[in-house]
Amino acid sequence: MAAFTALAVAGLALSAYGQIRAGQAAKRQGEAGKRAAESEAQLAEYNAAVADLQAQDAVARGGQEESKFRTNVRTMIGSQRAGFAGSNVDVAYGSAVDVQTDAAFLGELDALTIRTNAAREAWGYQVQGEDLRRRAEITRKEGVMAAEAGRAQAGSAYWGAAGTLLTGTSSLLETRYGYGRIYGGRR
Questions:
Q1: Phi then psi for 33, rounded to 5 degrees?
Q2: Is there a domain that residue 33 lies in?
């Protein structure tokens, strides 16, 4: 009987120990999930900062391209004026003025298109950056939830180990000393 009792106690202890170890592993896994989520969130924030820089670069490049294009239009209009003047055409009257006006108007439309395209490109990067920041925020929350879930599983495992020990001890006491018979003969 003593050997049976010793084996039963050892079994209870091993079962409780296993539950505690499982709880500790769940807690470690939750904390590892939180650390991984934090790393992922930091990467997303870095990428968001890169997208912000790309947006600024798009606007700056667009401004430079627009300025260069306007300079080219002015140069072209100057060449037109020189060509008209070289042909003894009055550059301030009639068709010569119409040609220069049309060139200036179309040049302005193209310059504004360049500006608009740069703004659209920048907007795309800004949206991407905002999306990445939101993802970082969500990922951090997921990490916190993983850590909380690990702690909850650990707590549950600890309570399970305590329950195993109590139930097993009760069963052993009943088997060894007739605990159930002492209190009313119920089994």
A1: -60, -40
A2: yes
Report the predicted TM-score, pTM, of the whole model to 2 decimal places. 0.71
Residue 176 belongs to a domain: yes
Report the half-sphere exposure of 60 (CA within 13 A, side-chain side). 6
* 29, part of any domain: yes
For 96-106, the pLDDT digits (tens) are 999 999 999 99
Give the phi and the psi of residue 45 in degrees, each rounded to 5: -65, -40
pLDDT per position as a tens digit, 135-164: 999 999 999 999 999 989 988 888 888 888
Q: Would residue 55 count as lying in a domain?
A: yes
Give the range of the structural domain holding residue 28, as residue numbers without chain letter.
2-182
Number of domains in the chain: 1
| Token pair belonging to 1 | 């009987």
The encoded tokens of residue 131 equal 């999306």
Distance (Å, whole) CA 92 – CA 132: 56
- Whether the CB-CB separation of 91 and 85 falls below 8 Å is answered with yes
Cα separation, 175 vs 160, in Å, equals 22
